[in-house]
Each structure stands twice: as C-alpha cells, then as structure tokens.
Amino acid sequence: MFFFRMIFRSFSRQFKRRLLIAVTVCLSATVSVAMLGVVFDVGDKLNAELSTYGSNITVQPKADAVVNDLYNTGGDANSNASGTSESDPTTFLKESDALKIKTIFWAFNITNFAPELNIHADVNCASESVDSSSCKASGVPIVGTWFAKTLHMDSGESTVAGMNGMRSWWKLDGSWPKDDSAQGLIGTTLASKLGVGKGDTVTLYKTTADGSRNKQRITITGIYDSGDSDNNAMYIPSSTAQVLANLPDSIDKIEVKALTTPDNDLARKASKNPNALTQDEWETWYCTAYPSSIAYQIEEVIPGSVAKQVRQVAALQGDVLQKTQAVMVLMTVLSLVAAAIAVANLMAASIGERGSELALLKAIGATDGAVSRLMLAETAVISLVGAIVGALLGSGVAQIVGHVVFGSGITMRPMVFVLVFVLLTLTVLIASFSSIRSILGLKPAEVLHGR
Among 291, 226, 290, 285, which Cα is nearest to 256's? Predict the structure, then answer.
C-alpha cells in the first residue's frame, strides 16, 4: 500500500514535467503507429496505384513467346500492332479460354484483363462529310479487344473485363464502343491523318489468309490519346476483328492486370525454373501472389499459352515500395530516438528535483531496487497513457495519409500496435536506465544535509 500511495502522491507533484513525458511518448507513438501502419499496408496500396498504369502480366501463344525470347522482339504488355512489325500474327489462343483466368487460385487478385487480336487493314473513309479521295491509309494497326464485356462464369458469378479499365490514362474524346458492335476508337495521330472525327464512319478492308477480301464499316465513337505510338491504331470489338480477318475465336495476346506481391529471392528463383524449388518453397511461392506464381497459374488453365510478368512494372513496384518503406521506417526510428532523449532528460531533471524525497525514502529503509521500481512505475504509467492516446491519434493520421496519397483508407493491423508498444517499452527502459543509475548513487546523509 505504501508503494501505491507514493505513486499517487508523486502524480500530484511536478505535473508539468510528467505532462511533457506523456506528450513526448504520445507524439512518438503517433508517428510510429502512423508510419508502421502505412508500411504494413503500403504494398497493396502501391500495387493498386501502379496497376492503374496498365497490365503487369501478358499472355501469348507459346510459339510467339519462344520467337520473342529467341530474337528479343517482345514489347511491353501495353504494346500492340502499332508498336511492333506490320505482319499479322500466325499463332493464336482461343478467346473463349480467356475467361479461365478468373478460375485460378488468385482469381480475386485479377482486377481486369482484355484479350487482343492484333491485325492490319486498309482504311477508307465512308462518310459524306469526309473527302474519301484523300482519306485512305494502308496497313493500319487494328486491335480487336473487349471494352467493357460482362462475363458469366460457371460458378454463377459475373465480372466485367476490357480496355475501359485497362487504359485509365488515355485521354478520350467521345465514348467507349459497345462490345460485339460495329463501333471503334481511333488514335489522335491516325484520326488527324485521315481527317475523321467522332461520329464518322470508315471502312476497313482486310485480305485474309485464304485470299478473300473482307470489309467492315466502323463508326467512330471516340478519339483517344495514349501519349505513344498507339495513337496510330484503331480499337474495335474482338468479334468484329475476327470476322474481318476470318479468324473466329482467335486472339494473339491477353493483357492481365493483377494485384501482386513484389518479387523477392524466392519469386526470382521460381521465375527462372519453378521445378528447381523444394516442396516447401513451391507451396510458399504458389500460395503467394507473386507475378510469377499468378503467371504460372494462368499457363495452367489456358492451353498453349505463356504468361509473363512485365518486368518494368514489377521492378518499379519493388523499387518504389522499398524506398517508401525505408523512409517511413527511418521516420519511426527517429521519433523513437527523439523520445528516448527527451524522456531521459526529463527523468534526470525530475530525479534532480526530487533528490531529497528519494533520499528520505532510502533513509527510512527503502532499498535501491524499491526506489528504482517506484520511478519506473511512475514513468510507465505516464508513458502508457501517452502511448494509448498516441496510438489512437496515429491511427487517424494513417487514414489521412492513406486518403491523401492513395485515395483510400489504411488497414490497421493489430501487429502494428503490438510492435509500437514493444518499441516504446524498450525506448522508455533505455531512456530510464541512465537516470535510474543516478538513484543508486544517492547518499541519504549528504542529500538531506544539503550537500
């Protein structure tokens, strides 16, 4: 009882100094909880942010992948016929197999996908408002794809996939075409060359493999600006492109946008040769949303395909994530160091002012351990109050950071609070150590006589 009476009595004295300790710990807890909360959640946030800039996995026929690897002709996942050679593809995947992407283990991490049939065609204007004699172009890149296609799966679930969600950075003047229609989009460069605009109609001519000459009238619903060579192309529904090229149910690429975990040594090892993994490594890799494991699972469900991650996106994600986490961890460490220094100085000043009180306790029989525990208990209670308030404030700050930087809230994991309280406990103990040592050097006789 005497021990607790001393604690409560001490709270009534030196209020200002104790308040400063509580505020110091509170600020440190606020910064630590906010920063570590973001660190633990920043991977998913960055992934979602980077995924707005296109696909991070591309799927193509195995024969094409072999040629691309052999001659180093493969482009990035967002390239199409406008950025590659003017020859049409010769190997294909089945468009009907594309839906199988949503049946893999990591199906919920697949946020969007779009099949493509990249061909070339001649274009003539078919609108009375355009001079057809000057509105001609040969070998125009045509991309047959989905725009916002509603897909119904065997499980009874539905999903919407297509370029509408894959090309969020495009500047579109007009509206997206409807799937399975005679509508299309045209790039700004090609539109300027042909002199066509929204609402105009063009005719596509395509010589097929059997020598026949097919044509298809397309109504332009919008003009897009991609910011690259893609502006030389036209995008039309895949079903329309397949009829034009006489290639039913055929595609030559699938772009996939997936939420992934940044690569580590295990993922890099697996991407080279999954068969080289041990059983435990294979299970860990397969059950983690690495780009390589998602690509591997896509290959499992789409016959004759090769799925590859877009290395530039994966490398950018990992690099940005590491730097972001490093900055936030550094801020946490600095806040803890600042708290340790402040608490140490405040405790030292408090012990100096209360020297006669502590000496009196020792004079009436209190041991060094009892006096030390008294000071530690007092500091612990003050720090606990500050830490709890700081944890609440830190959660709020983390949400502000999440909404300002990523446009969504931060998921606060219980591990964050446990880790912060452990770190603060160690910080306060280390800060108190030098001050507690001064208690051991107190000599009651000298202190009480004012020496």
Answer: 291
